[in-house]
Automatic annotation (TrEMBL):
GO biological process: epithelial cell apoptotic process; establishment of planar polarity; exocytosis; Golgi to plasma membrane transport; homeostasis of number of cells within a tissue; non-motile cilium assembly; protein localization to plasma membrane
Name recorded for this polypeptide: Exocyst complex component 5
InterPro entries attached to this UniProt entry: Sec10-like, Sec10_HB, Sec10_N
Exocyst complex component Sec10 N-terminal domain sequence ranges: 39-147
GO CC aspect terms: exocyst
Organism: Terrapene triunguis (Three-toed box turtle)
Family in the record: Belongs to the SEC10 family.
Length: 708
């Protein structure tokens, strides 16, 4: 049976059980082993095992029945005990209700008795107290204070209570009959009040919080209680301002007082608020006045810096004080204190700001022009100037004499950074010091100053000077500096736009001034871009003019119609080399001077004009066979140069021009085939004919016949 029990494992699986049993029987394994498989023996063992299981089942069944009987017996006994306990609980609950009713009855009787006793005792106590007050009043009436409470300094608390009550009574008495006694009581009242305040002062100096609390509680009913608070506030500040940082000292002082004021006074929030008010109206106001009045009329820059710093530190201090309990509306309370200090300075802040910004910006610009030994020209305004501007925009003609700027752009990164820095600080001060309703208007005025001095007085002046410095297209060896102006102006525009977005937009984003600022910015940028476009266009004309001078000086008629066809050894002409070199330098300069799509736009315009120049230049010569080959080589070099533009249209134009040059050398019999090729098929026949006419052999009847 023990062996059978070992075969049971949790969880029980019948198949696994049979398998384990078979393996334990010698010769019963299904996979072979030391003994051969014996089915009879296996059957015999299974039969015996079944019998053992049956016996085991019977024994277990008997045990289960016995346990069930025992469990039923215990359940009956437990139910009987529960019923007995329920009966006992009901009896106890009844006793508890009776006891509760009895206690309530007794308590009612006691309360009634207490009320009766109080009704008897209260008048008695009042009578006793009135008798004592009459006794003390008689002493004042007789003019001699004999009671121990008035002569013993240790009983000052009791004396204060008595004299305070006598003082109230004396005020109800007629003056003509009791003037003398009323005077004596008032005198004693005043003396005790002074003694209590002195006692409070001494206790504060000794740091005895408990004694201060006792004296303050007594003084609470006296008229001099506010004087007690004043003494506390005054002594709190003694030795608190030993450093130069009044704001940090104030924060530390208020933190310290906030911890102890609740242990001394019955209304700590009132005392703390009065302390803060005293600090603001005396200490801070005096400090602010000293620092601002010193520079108010003599140094606007220092005045604005001090005003911004003092106001910022005061508002930061106010934020720290908001942590304390100062009453119901502490935000309004602190705001009024700050306003009382700075109201006279904030009323005309923006006028001082604009005046300083104007003078400072003018000085920065003048200092720059002085460093360049440049006398700033007056850019005219009015009808004549406007007429000139419109003519120049429409015709690109230089109006007036050209000015030699000696390569100076009259644009300075340092000047721009200084102007933007001054304006940035002005925006920060404006944000902090302006009233919320005036903030957009004030920010717009500062922005207008930036536009006037940065955009008009500096950038626009540089553009005008740069335009005046662009030579005419016919000038030889002209130095073109306007692209340097473009490059620097482009950089400045980015900085200007960044400050607009970073510092101005947050101040005006939710006001009507936003659209006004955006329009002003748009107008000034469009005005600048228009002048830049004019300058770039005239600069491109000058570049083309320089190329014309190179071609006129270097290109010879014999280049394309040599006297000895066999003596031509060069790959391309000298004129082509110099023009390509010049063009590559200008392309590189344009890429450095501009960014984004502007680069492609300008390069495409230059490329188209470059192509037109070469096209018209080639039309001026007659070409022999060898000269035509040299022209093809030149155009191939021009096309290689055009690849540097990285503009598909420009490269396509030179590819077509290269194909046209093939007409100069192709055999007469193949002219029609070449003209119908992919690159030339879409061209006007007159263009093709014009190139064929450039051939030296065009007059021959054979060539004319083939092309007709």
């Amino acid at each position: 049976m023990a062996a059978t029990a070992e075969l049971f494992e949790e969880p029980f699986v019948a198949d696994e059980y049979i398998e384990r049993l078979a393996w334990r029987i010698p010769g019963g394994g299904s996979r072979g082993g030391a003994e051969a498989f014996d089915p009879k023996r296996l059957l015999e063992e299974f039969v015996n095992h079944i019998q053992e299981l049956q016996v085991m089942d019977e024994r277990i069944q008997r045990k289960v029945e016995k346990l069930e009987q025992h469990c039923q017996k215990e359940a009956k006994e437990f139910a009987k005990k529960v019923q007995e306990l329920q009966k006992s609980n009901q009896v106890a609950f009844q006793h508890f209700q009776e006891l509760d009713e009895h206690i309530s009855y007794v308590a009612t009787k006691v309360c009634h008795l207490g009320d009766q006793l109080e009704g008897v005792n209260t008048p008695r106590q009042r009578a006793v107290e009135a008798q004592k007050l009459m006794k003390y009043f008689n002493e004042f009436l007789d003019g001699e204070l004999k009671s121990d409470v008035f002569t013993n300094s240790e009983k000052i608390k009791e004396a204060a209570d008595i004299i305070q009550k006598l003082h109230l009574i004396a005020q109800e008495l007629p003056f003509d009959r009791f003037s003398e006694v009323k005077s004596k009581i008032a005198s004693k009242y005043h003396d005790l009040e002074l003694q209590l305040i002195q006692e409070f002062t001494n206790a504060q100096r000794r740091g005895e919080i408990s004694r201060m609390r006792e004296v303050a509680a007594v003084l609470l009913h006296f008229k001099g209680y506010s004087h007690c608070v004043d003494v506390y506030i005054k002594q709190c500040q003694e030795g608190a301002y030993l450093r130069n940082d009044i704001f940090e000292d104030t924060a530390i002082l208020c933190q310290r007082v906030n911890k102890q004021v609740g242990d001394i006074f019955s209304s700590p929030e009132t005392v703390l608020a009065k302390l803060i008010q005293n600090i603001f109206e005396v200490k801070l106001q005096s400090n602010v006045k000293d620092q601002l009045e010193e520079h108010r009329k003599s140094d606007a820059e220092q005045y604005l810096k001090n005003l911004y710093e003092l106001y910022t530190r005061t508002t930061n201090l106010s934020s720290k004080l908001m942590e304390f309990n100062l009453g119901t509306d502490k935000q309004t309370f602190l705001s009024k204190l700050i306003k009382s200090i700075f109201i006279s300075y904030l009323e005309n802040y923006i006028e001082v700001e604009i005046g300083y910004l104007k003078s400072r910006s003018a000085m920065i610009l003048q200092r720059y022009y002085d460093s360049k030994n440049h006398q700033k020209r007056s850019i005219g305004t009015g009808g004549i100037q406007d007429l000139k501007e419109r003519i120049r925009q429409r015709t690109n003609l230089p109006l007036g004499p050209s000015i030699d700027t000696h390569g100076e752009t009259f644009l300075s990164q340092e000047v721009v950074v200084n102007l933007l820095q001054e304006t940035k600080q002005a925006f920060e001060r404006c944000h902090r010091l302006s009233d919320h309703s005036d903030l957009p208007k004030n920010a717009f005025r500062i922005f207008s100053m930036l536009v006037e001095f940065l955009c008009i007085e500096h950038i626009d002046y540089a553009l005008e000077t740069g335009l005046a410095g662009i030579p005419s297209p016919d000038s030889k060896n002209a130095n073109l500096y306007f692209l340097d102006v473009v490059h620097q102006a482009n950089t400045i525009f980015h900085l200007f736009d960044k400050q607009f977005n970073d510092h101005l937009m947050p101040l005006i984003s939710s006001s009507p001034k936003l659209s006004e600022c955006l329009q002003k910015k748009k107008d000034i940028i469009e005005q600048m871009e228009m002048k830049l476009d004019v300058g770039i266009d005239r600069t491109l004309n000058c570049m083309i003019g320089q190329m014309k001078h190179i071609l006129a000086a270097e290109q010879k008629k014999t280049d394309f119609k040599p006297e000895d066809e066999n003596s031509v050894l060069i790959q391309y002409t000298n004129a082509c080399v110099k023009v390509c070199g010049y063009v590559r330098k200008q392309v590189e300069k344009i890429r450095k001077s501009m960014d984004g799509k502007n680069v492609d736009t300008v390069l495409m315009e230059l490329g188209v004009r470059f192509h037109r120049l070469i096209y018209e230049h080639l039309q001026q010569y007659s070409y022999s066979c060898m000269g035509g080959m040299l022209a093809i080589c030149d155009v191939a070099e021009y096309r290689k140069c055009a690849k540097d533009f990285k503009i598909p249209l420009v490269l396509q134009l030179f590819d077509t021009l290269h194909a046209l040059c093939n007409l100069l050398v192709v055999a007469p019999d193949n002219l029609k085939q070449v003209c119908s090729g992919e690159q030339l098929a879409n061209l006007d026949k007159n263009i093709l004919h014009s190139f064929v006419q450039l051939r030296a052999d065009y007059r021959s009847a054979r060539l004319a016949r083939h092309f007709s």
